[in-house]
From TrEMBL:
Catalysed conversion reaction: ATP + protein L-histidine = ADP + protein N-phospho-L-histidine
Enzyme superclass (EC): transferase
Name of protein: histidine kinase
Histidine kinase/HSP90-like ATPase domain mapped to chain residues: 3-39
A molecular-function term among this protein's GO annotations: protein histidine kinase activity
Listed EC numbers: 2.7.13.3
Keywords: Kinase, Transferase
Gene3D superfamilies recorded: Histidine kinase-like ATPase, C-terminal domain
Pfam family, one: HATPase_c
Amino acid sequence: MQQQSQIFTAFYQADTNSQGTGIGLTIASSLAKLMGGKLN
């Protein structure tokens, strides 16, 4: 559960074995907010 609350934090990675920077959900959340929406 602790990992779920942090997934929208920039550069957070729940699994260090996966590739990527951990910024994708942060960007998606910000874009949704700009368009009046919300990701949760």
